[in-house]
Amino acid sequence: MKKKLLAITLVLxxxxxxxxxxxxxxxxxxxxxSERARxxxxxxxxxxxxxxxxxxxxxxxxxxxxxxxxxxxxxxTNKWTVQDAGGSGxxxxxxxxxxxxxHKIVVxxxxxxxxxxxxxxxxNNMNYAACDGERYIHPNYNVWVNRFNQEIQKELSxxxx
Length: 161
Hints:
Layout: H1 2-18, H2 31-37, E1 48-49, E2 53-57, H3 64-77, E3 81-84, E4 92-99, E5 103-110, E6 115-124, E7 129-131, E8 134-137, H4 140-158
Antiparallel strand pairs: 1-8, 2-6, 3-4, 4-5, 5-6, 7-8
Helix pairs in contact: 3-4
């Protein structure tokens, strides 16, 4: 029993070591960029550039419905609220995440059978700021959206026709 527990612990520890999820990992600004951002960014932490996931590929031979369903399942797994946001003939979802009833982020998700994107739409209590053509936000935004993207990729890989 001890050997089994040790093996499980080692597997979990190595998974976390290979997949850093702390916000500092996504804190992707240099010190000089941070200083420029400070003129409009009012957060306590060092600001991060917003990372948009653009045109992420899906598996071959998927339908738009399968892609939509995979995104929705991934959202449900990570406590995102996913809803249809498409207009006439437009394949678009909107997903929102509320963390500790304190932070809220919303991403726009256009998709086709071949690709999807996760694009910043808006947020509450995340210290979003735009300066000199750059968009800054609390670094946890990038952590949460990256986890969502990883879960979408997992769902897409197990979706079967």
